[in-house]
Every structure is written in structure tokens, then in C-alpha cells.
Write a structure and sequence with these properties.
single chain, 116 residues, mainly alpha, 5 helices
């Protein structure tokens, strides 16, 4: 399994390197549309290799997706936390209610415990 993971990482690395080498030409990156830039009076313009723009877009997409999933599961995590607290409380209560080994119980209760 470990070798499969290494093979997969090598394949991903080779793929990323080949994308980087194939997309080295510079592209203009504008932060505002020309109409908005003219209205505001300034324009931020960068010349970046295309592969950096692609990788940044993928990274931003992963971050947004991870944040969205974290928000989506908030209710489940909160209910799980309350269930765990309830289980811990009930476990403690069961331990407190169990009789110690020296206490003589009723015959019927002993039979019920032996069966269960």
C-alpha cells in the first residue's frame, strides 16, 4: 500500500511538472475589469506564467471547497459533541449505580444479571 502511495505521488508530480513546462508563457492578469479600473483610476496588472495562474486557481478552489464543507458539517459536529457528553454522563451514572462486589443482592436480581 505504501508503494502504491509513492507511485501515485510520483505520477502526480510528473503531471504537475509537465503542465508547468507546457504552460510557461507569460499571461496578463488583471484584478479589475477595464471599466471598473477606469472608474476607480487605477489598475493592478501582473505578468505571470500560465501554470502559476492555473495552480493558484486550483488552490483557491480547494480552500473554498474545504471551508464550504466545514460549514456544511458544523451541525453534525455539534450534535456529535453533545452525544459524546451524554454518553460520558450516562457511563459515569452506570458506574455509580452498580453495586460493589461485597453487597448481597436479591436472588432474582442475581439471576437476571447472570442471564444478561
Amino acid at each position: 500500500m505504501r508503494y502504491f502511495r509513492y507511485l501515485l505521488l510520483i505520477l502526480v508530480a510528473v503531471g504537475l511538472i509537465s503542465i508547468s513546462l507546457a504552460n510557461r508563457e507569460l499571461v496578463g492578469f488583471h484584478f479589475l475589469p477595464s471599466i471598473a479600473a477606469d472608474a476607480l483610476g487605477f489598475q493592478v496588472h501582473l505578468e505571470l506564467p500560465l501554470f502559476i495562474v492555473i495552480f493558484l486557481c486550483v488552490a483557491v478552489g480547494l480552500l473554498v471547497g474545504s471551508f464550504w464543507e466545514w460549514l456544511r458539517t458544523t451541525q453534525q459536529r455539534l450534535s456529535l459533541r453533545s452525544y459524546r457528553r451524554e454518553v460520558a454522563r450516562l457511563s459515569k451514572e452506570i458506574i455509580e449505580l452498580k453495586p460493589s462486589g461485597n453487597v448481597v443482592q436479591d436472588d432474582v436480581l442475581e439471576l437476571v444479571e447472570k442471564v444478561s
